[in-house]
Amino acid sequence: MRSFLSLRCCRLIPPFFLGLAALVAGGLSTSSAAATVQSPGIVEAIEDVVIRSTVPGTIDRYAFDEGGRVQPQEVVVILENRLQQLEVARRKLIWESLVELEAARAQLELAQNDLEATRKLFETTQSVSREELDLKALDARLAQAEVDRFQVAEEREKIEFEIAEEQLNLRLLKSPIKGIVTKHFMAAGETTEGQEPLVRIVDLSRCVLVSNVDATRIGRLHVGQRVEVVVQGGEDVRIQDAVVTFVSPVVDPSSGLQEVKAEFSNPEERIRPGLTGLLVFDPDPAPAATSASEGAVEEAILTGVAKVRE
């Protein structure tokens, strides 16, 4: 049987998987072995983020040690922010102070009452002149303009308070995902100039095997197809059901390989990103894959694992 691994692919995986792949093929029936393709790949976390600050500043402290588990929107890095806290407090006091606006509203009420009384006198007794009435009306309009000015100022102060809050939040760096803190890139007390990596967070609960498959053997592999992923970590070999989420529409001209990604659940977090694995799939799947054929592949893999360990 012709080897399914090129020399280039062989250099990517440990000898364990070379033996395993051969024994998997041997453990299958002749027709199954001919149909099944095994391709080496690398396990990656689907969500793997490096948090950077968008503003320069000095690291005050990390909210989580390396190895700590975080939830989405939890603060993970705190830059020194005493000045920003004070600015938020100052802007809040200015915004919430209504003394000037209330005084202007009281002045407006007096001016309107005075105008109404003057108008009644003008209309009934003619004891005040038209000029006096016009002056009272002007006073009322000026008082209304003063109220409007303070209302605009109140809105401006609210916006300035929100800007100060945002400036503070820029120094409280939050995790966009749930996961484990895997690395602190800088120590507390060091200064970042902005856009430098500070902390890495990885979610191990869902992973993807990225494999470069020989384009001549990829067949009709398609997005949504169920495949098997075999991964070894130390003495632990795990077989995972996976689903193809990406098949590259192009072939690398220098290597003749085509990138394929297969996602799988890793709820126990026993499979670590960075490990080497095998992608096992049928290049010409039937419209409805039978559980019997899937079981044959898994049984052959387990048989291969046992023989390799012997």
Provide keyphrases for this structure.
alpha+beta; OB fold (Dihydrolipoamide Acetyltransferase, E2P); elongated; single chain; six-stranded antiparallel β-barrel; disordered N terminus; Elongation Factor Tu (Ef-tu), domain 3; four-stranded antiparallel beta sheet; 3 domains; 310 residues
Written account of the structure:
The protein has 310 residues and is an alpha+beta fold. It has three domains: 7-48 and 202-309, Efflux pump adaptor protein, beta barrel domain (Elongation Factor Tu (Ef-tu), domain 3); 50-79 and 172-199, RNA polymerase II/Efflux pump adaptor protein, barrel-sandwich hybrid domain (OB fold (Dihydrolipoamide Acetyltransferase, E2P)), CATH 2.40.50; 83-169. It is 40% helix and 30% strand. It has helices at 7-10, 15-27, 30-35, 82-96, 99-124, 130-169, 291-309, and strands at 37-52, 57-62, 69-70, 75-79, 172-174, 179-184, 191-192, 197-214, 226-233, 236-247, 257-265, 276-281. The strands form two sheets. Strands 1-8-11-10-9-12 form a six-stranded antiparallel β-barrel. Strands 5-4-2-7 form a four-stranded antiparallel beta sheet, with no helix packed on it. Strand 9 and strand 10 (236-247) form a beta hairpin. Helix 4 runs antiparallel to helix 6. The longest helix is centred in the middle third of the chain and has 40 residues, at 130-169. The radius of gyration is 35 Å and the shape is elongated. The two termini are 23 Å apart. Residues 1-13, 22-33 and 289-293 have low confidence and may be disordered.
